[in-house]
């Protein structure tokens, strides 16, 4: 092939290659432009989303904190109401003057008001995801006040519904006491008879006093002060309070606490002990000599469970459905308030109580939440 022809062919190949390169470059530029437009669009949407999120966070009345390895990354303005010194870059900690309440995750904060020392309750919710944590802090003082007021109104309403039952409970011992008192006023009775009537009068008055105390405990049932206490100690206190009654009736009380961990309950100890005693009294009342009432305590990382079982005749379905209602009793000597007070006490401490029955006897179960800060893993 002549040199001139070879040159022409090479030039043609170069032109074709350049044309292909140019076309591909144009396509690439178009793709880059489209990609840049998409990036700009996504960046704009992300910016708008962040702006909306910032507006939302700023509008939330609850305090919000984002942590990275326990260090504050960001927070919304509302959190400064609770933690005015908080700022990004510092390690987050619950302040030492925030006192844990009876409910895990809730804290009581004391404030100095114009004329008195005030208290408010805050709820701290924490969500962990890897090295990051999301924390929400909210003032729930009003909610708790409303809840307590509702509970009180419900108890007052229950007392209203119990009016007929109360009248019946008071009428018999009061009428009997008046009868013995009238006999004592009779100057013709001898000393021995007067002493007998006085003893019977005293017994009726003591029954009236017990009924009055039970009613007052029911209507004003509320823990005085919650403290951290070992679960075993509460059970031992309850056992000590009632052991002599079991011995007097020749009924065995078997207590097992080996299956519980070493965590503590944040409760009013005497109130919980009294609730356990009320259930043990109920079990003792239906037990015969040489029978056994069992109390077994067990737990997981969250809850303490106390199971009390007896060998009595069981509870009828009709009574079981209303067992924890005031004045629900089959005992001639009972007021029917003990189990109702026990239920109120347990539920006030964020726990639960239930009862089951079979031919082998009745089984009561109490569940109470552990204080998370006290658990030993």
Describe it for me?
The protein is built from eight helices and 13 strands. With 377 residues, the protein is α+β, with helices and mostly antiparallel strands. The chain has four domains: 1-58; 63-139, no CATH class; 142-220, Orthogonal Bundle (Helix Hairpins), CATH 1.10.287; 222-377, Histidine kinase-like ATPase, C-terminal domain (Heat Shock Protein 90, 2-Layer Sandwich). Strand 5 (117-129) and strand 6 form a beta hairpin. It is elongated, with a radius of gyration of 37 Å. It catalyses: ATP + protein L-histidine = ADP + protein N-phospho-L-histidine. Residues 25-59 form a coiled coil.
Question: How many DSSP helices?
Answer: 8
Amino- and carboxy-terminal Cα gap: 92 Å
Order of helices and strands: HEEEEEEHHHEHEEHEEHHEE
The SS-based structural class is alpha+beta
| Average pLDDT metric | 81
What is the CATH superfamily classification of the largest domain?
A: Histidine kinase-like ATPase, C-terminal domain
Task: Give a quick rundown of the structure.
With 377 residues, the protein is an alpha+beta fold. It has helices at 3-59, 141-161, 163-184, 191-219, 231-249, 269-285, 317-321, 338-348, and strands at 63-68, 71-75, 99-100, 106-112, 117-129, 132-139, 227-230, 252-259, 264-267, 292-299, 303-309, 352-358, 361-369. 48% of the residues lie in helices and 23% in strands.
Topology at a glance:
Blueprint: H1 3-59, E1 63-68, E2 71-75, E3 99-100, E4 106-112, E5 117-129, E6 132-139, H2 141-161, H3 163-184, H4 191-219, E7 227-230, H5 231-249, E8 252-259, E9 264-267, H6 269-285, E10 292-299, E11 303-309, H7 317-321, H8 338-348, E12 352-358, E13 361-369
Parallel strand pairs: 8-10
Antiparallel strand pairs: 1-2, 1-6, 3-4, 4-5, 5-6, 7-9, 10-11, 11-13, 12-13
Helix pairs in contact: 3-4, 5-6, 6-8
